[in-house]
Amino acid sequence: MKRTAFLMFLFITIIMAILTGSSFAVTYGETRKRVLVVYDNPNLLNRDYSGLANDFSVILSEQLGHFNTEVEVVMENEYKEGMLEGYQYIFYLSLREKYSVNQVLLQDIANTARTVIWYGGGIEELLNANKNIPLKFRGRSKTYHLVEYNKETFNLGQNAGINLLVEPLSEEVITYGRVSDGKGVYPLIANWKNYWFMSGLDTSGVKYLVFSDVLHEIFGEYHSEYRKVYLRIEDVSPLRSPKNLMEIADYLYSKKIPFIIALIPAYINPETGVEVSITDKPEVVKAVGYMVERGGTVVLHGYTHQHYKEETGEGFEFWDAFEDRPLNVNYADYVRERVLKGIEICRENGLYPLAFEPPHYAMAQDGYRELKKYFSTVIGQLQTTDRRFITASLPYEIRNTKRFNRFLPESLGYVAEDGSFGVNEILKNAGKMLLVRDAVTGVFFHSFMDKAYLKQIVEGLESMGYVFADLEKEDNWVKIGDYNIRSTAKGDIIYEGPLLKKEKIKSGIKEEEKNPHFTEV
């Protein structure tokens, strides 16, 4: 009887994964893979300001949340003999040009049967320590600007960065992708038995995307091979034009395209003294409600999207933009207060956010830990450090990491008002993302821009085969104070918490909202 119940549960789980468009393999009952990330640390601040802009150890540790992994991160100088024995996979990140590899670490890696992924410099030291590896180091080069992968060729030009060239000495070496200067050709990624080597130093471009795709081979995990994009209407504040919002909703509804409404509940302009919430603008609330009826899903985009002397929409909220450092606040109290105020205003107006998007994607590391308490889902880009404001675009959805329960990345950009970035750049980025078999990305659009741009973006992404994802038809939850909001794969939104004054109770059962997919509990 128990076996029958289990098989039925497993069958339903698989069917639900298919129906909800999950890109994740069913891992019910599987033990998470233990991963150790070791990175060099000669001078983190200088490395931040080099061409490798971000702390790759943070990017990688979060990115691996796309797979069924449990990740630990240590600096190279903290590594102790035998430490890798507790792990199945060891990533070594060497982003420096000088210094020798920690000899204790080097000997452990050279003699292990565990899977090793060597990313960056010092590969010649490993090849000397383990002469069985059939690769020959040919040096560093900045002239190898052509990258080939899956029959696609990209000319990186001045953005090629450094390649660490290795020559395979055996047919047993499996290669993924190639780098070339038009004459010589070397593998971008080489694999021999339990050793993997990534030659192209990159944390955001084409070579990084190839690496992100090949991680599926490294971990041996199957993910559904289609690309999803989340379309956001950005910075919907109390001062936005209701007419523009509704026209956008009508267009997307006519195309049967779901979208996200990045809502800022309150507007503040310290210079003019203007302070207004959506409660003061019933026509905006009506327009947002209209958008929801036409396939929109509300996401809380901060509370005021500003701090100190900044104007809403222009300023930061969870980062000190003037000093370029975390705010001088207790983030536990500050984040809770801002989120709670935002949720309360939304609730007052019959709106139910299902996720959070940090304003300008800026968030101190302590802030991420607080958001994780309240939101199942965060949208945007990853701020990798508290040393300065800088973000990274991840190539796919991640779950159960140090910073997030679930993270939906944005990497395509938006149409800039000054024309510095437009539709062509967005579609170019989307084309690169096709390198990743199960890419998840996002694009956003401001309602005051010409809607012709939006149509070009939508049609361009459709022609590439992207599927527009519906956040409301995914499992999300928001829990803070007395408020509990969640959505289901059927597109239902379920709310538990305080009633509005206008709501009534009949026979002890709370009346449902007009939305047939909405339920009060």
TrEMBL record:
It comes from the Bacteria. InterPro entries: DUF2334, Glyco_hydro/deAcase_b/a-brl. Gene3D superfamilies: Glycoside hydrolase/deacetylase (3.20.20.370). GO terms for biological process: carbohydrate metabolic process. SUPFAM superfamilies: Glycoside hydrolase/deacetylase. This is DUF2334 domain-containing protein. It comes from Koleobacter methoxysyntrophicus. The lineage of its organism: Bacteria, Bacillati, Bacillota, Clostridia, Koleobacterales.
